Amino acid sequence: MGADGTWTMTMKTPMGEQEGTLDLQTDGTALTGSMSGPQGSMDLEDGTADGDQLSWTVKMTSPFPITIEATATVDGDSISGEAKLGAFGVAPFSGTRT
User: Which of 16, 24, 46, 76 is the most interior residue, by most CB within 10 Å?
Assistant: First the structure.
């Protein structure tokens, strides 16, 4: 099963906690899907899966343009990681498979 599925997550951002959803699909080492939250839905880009280690980027356009670089670890039905928010620092996140 790996990382495949829908994940409900909470990210601790400089603007406070943000709730969101990750929809992930793997095909070998390729990771695709989307990340949805208060700023809308964004497709994952440059996604990779190496065992339980994941990485991807998303290009957010609202409320301002920014590229988010995320890394995560999957442990059963739990996921945790961090998202680099450019000049806004790093936002840790965690979640569960739904």
Answer: 24
